[in-house]
Amino acid sequence: MSDHGRPLPSARGAAAGRGIGIGLMHGLWRPRVLGAWRVPSAGPVIFAVNHAHNLDGPMLMGTAPRPVHFLIKQEAFVGPLGRFLRGIGQLPVDRSTVDRAAVTDALGVLERGGALGIFPEGTRGAGDFAALRAGLAYFAVRSGAPVVPVAVLGSAGRRSRAVPALPPLRSRIDVVFGDPVGVGGGRRTRRVMDEATGRLQERLAAHLTASRRLTGR
Predict the structure, then answer these.
(1) Domain locations in the chain?
(2) Cα torsion angle, 149, 154, 156, 160, sign
(3) R_g of the chain computed on alpha carbons
């Protein structure tokens, strides 16, 4: 149990979630994964993912070379879906406040050498990393974990006729992993956090631009 009384996020559950994600994402769509070799094979890592569609998180879970614990809005953790998400090691977060329990859980994942998934824009939008929140920099500076930029391209835009909320089944979705960015290990002063946020925003935006050029999206 964690300090706030919730069960610790399960590494075994995240591994099972990765297996489910691989089956679903590759079975229903045609992911093209580029740059996965850039992801550190061991030790803590943070995946910073652009967010234009609800499919982006599951797509990362099914294409990343390591199991991922994602910070997911707490509104999703209701009923059977909530039990399932907790079972596969995902982390609920209250986006309306500073959720100290979620912060503790996320740092715990990194302290144990796991992979943490974050939508650094905080919510679904244009998916262009234009409005970066400070949470990503906080986790990177506090943990010392490298940040791997991830561009998910092709999940937004056209919709399936069969399931209007999703991209067309069997359509191609590109997932592009970038070079790790290190900003950690320093003091958590306001200046350090602002500089880390600025550097991460610059690198994430550059990765997205390069990914669009590479994939033609």
Answers:
(1) 11-156+170-215
(2) negative
(3) 16
pLDDT of residue 129 exceeding 80: no
Give the CATH fold of the 11-156+170-215 domain.
Glycerol-3-phosphate (1)-acyltransferase (3.40.1130)
Distance CA 12, CA 213 (A): 37
Name residue 41's amino acid.
Answer: S
Per the CB < 8 A criterion, the answer to whether 133 and 103 are in contact is no
pLDDT band at 200; cut points 50, 70, 90 = very high
Distance CA 75, CA 202 (A): 31
Question: Using CA atoms, how far apart are residues 181 and 183, in angstroms rounded to an integer?
Answer: 7
pTM of the model: 0.90
| Residues 48, 140 contacting (CB under 8 angstroms) | no
Instruction: Calculate the alpha carbon distances from 99 to 68, 74, 103, 196 in Å.
Output: 20, 10, 6, 21
Question: Which has more confidence, 94 or 89?
Answer: 89
